[in-house]
Specification:
With 61 residues, this protein is mostly helical. Helix content is 56%, strand content 0%. The chain has helices spanning 13-37, 42-50.
Length: 61
């Protein structure tokens, strides 16, 4: 596939700042997604179990 557009100035200070800021944001989103997929925090899981809810059961739409 042919690249369209100009070369990105990957050695510029602004590019590096943006790259690391985006990398940090993606890591945060990934971390939150993993926590949510696992059912939330341990306190959240314990609350659900205490209320008689099955923390591992998934509802289908």
């Amino acid at each position: 596939m042919k690249n369209v557009g100009s070369e990105r100035p990957t050695n510029s200070k602004q590019f590096k700042e943006n790259y690391f800021a985006m990398k940090k944001a993606i890591e945060k989103v990934d971390s939150l997604a993993k926590r949510l997929i696992s059912g939330g925090s341990e306190n959240s899981k314990a609350r659900h179990v205490k209320r008689g809810k099955n923390a591992t059961k998934r509802q289908s739409s």
